[in-house]
Amino acid sequence: MNSFPSLLESISDLNKIQIDGLLSLSNKFKHRESESHLFTYRRPIIATSFLENSTRTKHSFAIAIQKIGAMYIDFNAETSSLKKGENLEETFLTLFNQGVNLCIFRSSISHQLNQFKNSPPIKIINGGDGINEHPTQALLDLFTLLELSLDLEGKTIAILGDNIHSRVCHSLINLLPMFGMKIILCGPTSFLPDASTLPPGVQISTNRDETILKSDFIYLLRIQKERHLVSDSNEILSDDKIYHTQYGVSLELLKKINKLVPVLHPGPANIGVEIDLALLKSSLYKGYLQVQNSIPMRMAIIQSMLVNNDKNIGNVHGEEF
Ligand code: CP
Question: Residue 205: pLDDT above 60?
Fold first, then answer.
């Protein structure tokens, strides 16, 4: 594999060769062809630091860290000296000087890690930053799509829901076209980005049924109310029943339009809003497969970053005297 970045903030930090390498390593981890306890003698130390709630990302990283034989520290930002005004760089440098090799960081602030692009104080993986990106979710989604269909070239995925506030959507639209996929972002106008800002191969639509009929996969997103501005509110968005009727997806709908395709969801799912219970309990729903695949993909990402041999980590100095 090409040298792996020491800061994974965005899908754009990776090239196709590195992504192919991650897919191949994930596959080996999933099918136990690769030794998972790689660091038995000199165990790296890896911390998670989540400044926002998480069930899937934080715990799958915690499991992946332990499966590759590293030591796991849950750095509790809420009770840390960040609360006494220490800045993020000093916090990361303190962890680095305590011997922590890598930190998985989640924040509600978009682009918060961008300040470390040129000289990371510690190796860092973005576990989701505001509405910007969630690169490891998109990578495990790609791994899942490839399990469902060996060749994604020319296939269409409908990403339905709150696209504009979704960091997962922002990572997917940069990742999936690299594998030949076409994407239709669908939702009410206020959930759709300006079409002129989108990468080639990505379109927008406000018509749910027409979008689903053109698609080979459906990817549902929850309404991310915590990221909405007061100006975003309107009747469709504030009434779950109206939203479900116009933009939610039910098993009954898929049967009615005869489009029984795999349905993915990054979670957490809001039953009765973007998805109904019958669809979530059906074999079309692949959300639990995504959760299963999160472990081998995150093992692959961690291992690739740990072994990148970047000697500049932690060398964040000012003027020399
Ligand atoms: N998919 C995802 O990021 O879920 P969590 O918020 O539970 O980590």
Answer: yes
